[in-house]
Design goal:
76% of the residues lie in helices and 0% in strands. It is mainly α. It has one domain. The longest helix has 37 residues, at 345-381. It starts with 20 loop residues before the first helix and ends with a helix. The model is unreliable at 1-77 (pLDDT under 50).
């Protein structure tokens, strides 16, 4: 199942000289400095009575984070959680901008292509390289790389860690380059994995497009390694904004090239669409390079196949490759059965997927990405009390961020989808896409929570457990796709809506299974506290969704023309306000903390003015 969609050697990471370790712990950012105050020289600063930099020793950077979290679960000052909040805020703002441009991109696709066979072929052809990117960025390559990179930094120093990074980059580009060549030459077998329920003739347009899209995997892979490096240094900004450049290039391609030429030169328009989409991926990878340059690149243009960390990453990657393959199988069946339900099926899923992923991509991904390096460092030190406290806080925060937005999406699905209503996207397409969005949104919490727990296993460097559970439960997922979309034993099924219903069941079951296995792995954690938080947020969110529906009924006269935009705002704002207001009244700490932080920001701005 694709998720979203999201994203050398340094002279020295940012450091601040400190007089002793007690002061170092107050920095609490997971690195040796707070944001905005760093040494930029070619050499790292030397601390009093020592000749090693903070990063060479490995102690200062990690102890700041780990000790802060250790005190956090005992009720002390939560410096590490403050750093995570800052990182999450930076990423949320950047990712929100990225998601907005992503919506404009999808809107441009709806305007230019509509819900047609062409848009379905485009979605399918672009799905394979997108899946490789999304799965790897969300848990495959970066999730293996970051813990090992941090481990090499702590044990062997900065230079060895960056040699390891260079080797991983070289291998990634080499392997994915071979995949790209094979995909370009033998495109049809790749495409047929997702179109086996339609004839080969109907799949030829997707085959043609995929020949151009196959090369994307190389730039996705290069970008993934770059993102892993930057995230290891707690540099979250450029990996978060990189997709903006991808989106802008594709928007220009759709509206500035394809639309003007589609009637007079249709073949040239389609070819330009394919080339422009690929150039967007190139831009997304290249734009992260300046951030690496700022750190200071010492790229090693070779591969040491005997490097011990490469053997470790190969061992860790084995289960993740199986995990990736099983996900690709699931997505192949998803698209195939979507085609079985309607010849426009993949396009319907594409448009609904954009809104389904919006809350997750803006908030949950930012939170998980910020928490992941901290969990990795805690696991490395075997501070299980701190690890469980960090996990519990992250899981509850995921619920607080996602559940109100998911329930609001269920309530307002149809007016939300009407945002696509322009150009080739007709009014008849709105209820079809909205019906899919309702069921996907209903299961969004299970998906977001599952991904957070999956990240937690990767922080433990346990890739085998998720691989096994995914391998077993993918059979359930594929069976549900078939049964719920096209039916069985004389029952017609739910049609295209059966796809999101199947996903909701799959992610709920998978979340429960992984949660139980995690409990066995690290010992008991705060399940009752998590469940109590989820229940209270759900009740508050249902009240907010009911209020939003009430406003929609009261403002029904605004539903025609562009008035639905005002109607959407009038319903959405009080809906979210009631959901989070009741959550605060229910005593949910994460909401109160966020509100207090917002008040401090407003107060500072007033004082500054």
């Amino acid at each position: 199942m694709p998720r979203l969609r999201h994203d050398f050697v340094s002279r020295s990471p940012p450091c601040r000289p400190v007089s002793d370790m007690r002061r170092a712990r107050t920095l609490g950012s997971g690195s040796c400095t707070r944001h905005g105050s760093a040494f930029r020289g070619a050499r790292p600063p030397v601390y009093r009575n020592t000749t090693r930099s903070c990063w060479a020793s490995g102690k200062l950077r990690v102890s700041a984070t780990i000790d802060a979290v250790h005190h956090a679960h005992r009720g002390g000052t939560i410096a590490a959680q403050q750093s995570i909040a800052r990182s999450t805020a930076i990423m949320s703002i950047s990712t929100a901008t990225s998601r907005i441009t992503g919506f404009v991109r999808t809107w441009a696709m709806a305007y230019a292509l509509g819900v047609t066979v062409l848009s379905a072929s485009y979605s399918v052809a672009n799905n394979i390289p997108n899946m490789i990117f999304e799965l790897a960025a969300g848990g495959v390559l970066s999730s293996v790389f970051i813990p090992l990179f941090i481990e090499r930094m702590q044990r062997d120093g900065e230079n060895e860690a960056w040699k390891f990074a260079s080797y991983v980059f070289n291998i990634t580009v080499l392997v994915l380059g071979v995949v790209a060549v094979i995909g370009t030459i033998w495109a049809e077998p790749f495409v047929r994995t997702q179109t086996f329920r339609i004839t080969a003739e109907k799949a030829q347009l997707a085959v043609y497009l995929f020949r151009f899209f196959a090369i994307q995997v190389v730039f996705y892979g290069a970008g993934m390694v770059t993102t892993g490096i930057l995230n290891s240094y707690r540099k979250f900004l450029w990996p978060a904004v990189a997709p903006i450049f991808n989106n802008v290039v594709v928007i220009i391609t759709l509206l500035g090239f394809y639309v003007p030429l589609r009637d007079t030169h249709p073949q040239l328009a389609i070819t330009g669409l394919a080339v422009g989409t690929t150039l967007g991926v190139v831009a997304m990878a290249v734009v992260q390079i300046p951030s690496l340059v700022k750190l200071g690149i010492r790229y090693t243009p070779r591969i040491d196949w005997k490097h011990p960390a490469l053997r470790t990453i190969a061992t860790k990657m084995g289960p993740l490759l199986v995990y990736t393959i099983t996900n690709l199988v699931a997505v192949s069946f998803r698209n195939a059965y979507a085609f079985g339900a309607t010849d426009r099926g993949p396009a319907v899923l594409q448009y609904a997927w954009m809104f389904y992923q919006l809350p997750y991509g803006i908030f949950a991904v930012a939170l998980a990405t910020a928490v992941f390096p901290e969990l990795s460092a805690l696991a490395e030190k075997k501070d299980w009390a701190g690890f469980k406290a960090m996990f519990s806080s992250g899981f509850r925060s995921t619920a607080v961020l996602i559940i109100p937005l998911a329930t609001l999406l269920v309530a307002l699905a149809e007016p939300v989808v009407r945002l696509y209503r322009a150009g080739s996207f007709t009014s008849a397409d709105v209820p079809v896409v909205a019906g899919v969005l309702v069921w996907w949104a209903a299961g969004l919490f299970f998906f977001a929570s599952y991904m957070f727990v999956l990240k937690t296993f990767y922080a433990l460097q346990d890739t085998r457990t998720p691989m096994i559970t995914n391998l077993v439960l993918t059979v359930l997922q594929v069976s549900l796709y078939a049964a719920l979309s096209v039916g069985f034993a004389g029952w017609a099924g739910f049609g295209i809506r059966g796809i999101p219903i199947a996903d909701g069941i799959f992610f709920a079951v998978h979340l429960i299974v992984l949660g139980l296995l995690l409990r066995r792995h690290i010992g008991g954690f705060d399940i009752r506290g998590i469940a109590w938080t989820v229940l209270r947020v759900l009740v508050a969110s249902l009240a907010g969704a009911a209020a939003a529906l009430g406003v929609m009924q009261l403002t029904a006269s605004l539903g025609s023309g562009a008035g639905f935009l005002l109607q959407l705002v009038l319903a959405g704002i009080p809906g979210l306000g009631i959901a989070y207001g009741l959550s605060a009244l229910f005593g949910i700490g994460e909401v109160r903390t966020g509100a207090a932080r917002l008040k401090r920001i407003i107060a500072r701005r007033r004082n500054a003015s």
